[in-house]
């Protein structure tokens, strides 16, 4: 990363410039100090160096170590956008975002690692917006720990926006509305969530786009981001997602939950530009709708 120092920032210590102007977290700055490099006009300096107008400041992040389960594995990737800081991928259903004890087979993260290796990039994978194994659609990845720290902060402050489309069983009486019901872990399961009075606040906004004989296509916007939130909320109101047998859905039409992230927007962590992406509905969801025209 490289910046030209402006007049308004002249006189600042490198440390203060990186912390206040470039929003480096303490953890990332410490990693740079301990294992990375800071150059001022091509010369190594410490964080106590004083900046002058017109100086070129460069920061080289330390090499990152990969987890034991994160072995690169080839898979085709649909890359929607890529630059030096972020990667946006259109994830297919049926593949986990990251490896886990339940899903130790090939994961999207391992496919991204293989892609990085083929391009000569020494990054590990920092997933910002994770999707369930059987959910398809747009997924945001930070390429390095600095962009990840900024995007994780934006995620916490609800500045990263996602919209989903889902096929739900039946027809809703109210064609648009809000489901406001707290969600927590189901006591008898490590996986399932449920609406419960002692759960964490969860708010889902929806709008019916189209109705079919047995199901409806809905547009969904999340105000919170609880695990399985969309699936739990629509099951709670009696309209589970098609194919979502974990939460009462029928697999008559589809073998996975009919959920797709079709819109993603965020502020770029380095350029500060507003980024916005869309992805068409997954083919299997289109087929279900076409069969029921």
From TrEMBL:
Catalytic-site annotation from UniProt: 132
Origin superkingdom: Bacteria
Protein name from the UniProt record: Pseudouridine synthase
InterPro entries: PsdUridine_synth_cat_dom_sf, PsdUridine_synth_RluA-like_CS, PsdUridine_synth_RluC/D, PsdUridine_synth_RsuA/RluA, RluA_PseudoU_synthase
Domain Pseudouridine synthase RsuA/RluA-like, first and last residues per copy: 86-235
Catalytic activity entry: a uridine in RNA = a pseudouridine in RNA
EC id: 5.4.99.-
EC class name: isomerase
Function: Responsible for synthesis of pseudouridine from uracil.
Gene Ontology molecular functions: catalytic activity, acting on RNA; pseudouridine synthase activity; RNA binding
Keywords per UniProt: Isomerase
Signal peptide: none
Family to which the UniProt record says this protein belongs: Belongs to the pseudouridine synthase RluA family.
GO biological process, one term: enzyme-directed rRNA pseudouridine synthesis
